[in-house]
Amino acid sequence: MNITLTQKERLLLEDQKSHEELCIKKYTDYANRAQDPQLKQMFEKHAQHEQQHLNTINQILNGQVPAMNNQQGQGSQQGGQQGGMQNQQQSGQGTQSIKQIQNASTSGSYNEKDKEFCDDLLMTEKYVSGTYDITIFECGDNNLRQTLNHIQKEEQQHGADIFNYMQSHGMYTPQ
C-alpha cells in the first residue's frame, strides 16, 4: 500500500529509524560480549527482530506500508506479518527459548556484565516502546498505525523477555 507521509510523521519515523539502528547495534554488541549462552541467543534473536523493524520503517519512509494479516494485534508470540516483519515460525522458536530461560534454575549468581547489558537493554526497550506510542498517535493512516503497533508490541515483548531472564537469574527482584 502506498502512502504519503506528513512532515510530522516523517520526522517521527526518522526518530524510530535511529532508535532501531541503536537497538541493532546494542543487541549485536551485547550478544558478542555476553557470557551466558542463553542470553547471547536471546540478544541475537532480538537483534534480528530489530533489523526487521528497521526494514519496515525504511519501507514506510519510502512510501510503502506493509500489508498486515489478521493476526496483527496478537503480538509477537502469535503473529507473522508481510513486508519484513517476523514470521510465525521464528516467533514460536523465540518464545520457546524464552520459556527455557524462565525455567532455568536460579542460583543467585550471575555475571555482573550480563546484568549491565540486561539493565541497559531493558531501559532501552522501555524508551523505544514509549516513542512508538507517540508516533502511533500522530499517524493519520490506520494501516500505518497497525504496522507500528505491531512493532511496538514486539518491543514490549523484548522488554518482557529481558525482565523474565533477569528475574529468573536473580538479577532483578521487583518489590
Automatic annotation (TrEMBL):
Pfam families: Coat_F. Keywords: Capsid protein, Virion. The keyword rRNA-binding does not apply. Residues 67-112 are annotated as: Disordered. Residues 84-97 have a biased composition (Low complexity). Residues 98-110 have a biased composition (Polar residues). InterPro entries: Spore_coat_CotF-like (IPR012851). It comes from the Bacteria. This is Spore coat protein.
